[in-house]
Structures are given as structure tokens and as C-alpha cells.
Description:
The protein has 3 helices and 12 strands, in the order E-E-E-E-E-H-E-H-E-E-E-H-E-E-E. Helices cover 19% and strands 25% of the residues. It has one domain: 3-Layer(aba) Sandwich (Rossmann fold), CATH 3.40.50.150.
Amino acid sequence: MPDNSVDYSITSPPYNFCLRVHSGCYTHRSSGEQRAGLKVNKYTNGLSDSLPMEDYFQWQCDCIDQMLRLTKDIVFYNIQIVTGNKSAVLRILGKYADNIKEVLIWDKCNGEPAIQGGVLNSEYELILALSKHDCKGRQFYNAQFERGTMSNVIRINKNHENQHRAAFPMLLPRTLISKFTPPIGYLRPLYWEWNYSRSLY
């Protein structure tokens, strides 16, 4: 796709959920392990969701670079920090510090139960608002909300309508589109779908 061919991009990549820590070392979660009655690998195309940390980091950077190249305005990148991506996500925040206009919080209104003792329930996810333009300030020039009426915390319940245990609610991208982009008809937003052979289509 050519440079600047879309106005906005919204994506939520796989979180590398199945890379775990055991005895101080990264390990892959067993494909036979069950959680809440669901198979650990919720994808149907063979993605293990357990890349080595460096591979996951590089994959995400490659995709973010492409999204920034293709997108005229804002890339909304939704990610939850889990054990399998924590180091990579923190590195992404540093690598793209000059491209981050704002960090929004998606408050899911109830926490995912901790997987073991001493672990906090996870009730939020990050949404990085990235741009290749000047991000020194925090102003969104196409904002569709009045001054003082929009928080950087978006409270939307998770989608519980299907078997995917971490379903992305459609209300979240709809909210981002309605609050941060001009009315439909003036732009061509692009939903990024993740192809689990580690490329985008």
C-alpha cells in the first residue's frame, strides 16, 4: 500500500499471552493446558502466541512502522501488558516516545482474575495514539469533543458475546472513530487485522 493511503488506523495485536515465566526463565505454555474451560490457543490458524520476547518486539515494531508509514493522522494501538509481552511493550513505549501523542487507558470495568498468587488482577489496557507528525503537544486537531468533556480513560465493558476470552468490543473502535476523527465521508479509516504468519493483510 502507498504511503499516507489511509487517514487513521486502529489495531489490537496478539499479546503473546502464552509466553510465561517458570523458575526465572521464559517458557511456552502447554498447548494442552486449559483455562476456564477454553483451550489456551484461542486462534484457529496455528498461532502459538508465544514468540520469544525479542521476536515479538521486532514483529510489533515492524507493524507499527508500516502503520505509521501508511497512516496520515493517528494510529491507535491497543495492547495489554502481560508476562509474555511486558518487556517488549515497555521497550515500544521508549522506542516510539517521539511518536506518542497520548496514552489512553481502556478501563474494562472488571479485572481479569490473576493467574497466580501475588499477581494483580488486570482491569485496563493501553491505547497508544501514535503519529509521525509533531507529538510534542497532546492536542488532537480533529477532535470531535468539546474542551474538558473527554477523558484519557475510556470505560467500556469487555465483549462477552462469544467464546474468545478477551474479545475486543466493537464499541471501543467506534468510540475512537467518533471522538478523534472527522465525520465519516471525509476519511478512510483502516482496521488492521492481524495475520498470524506475522504479517498484515
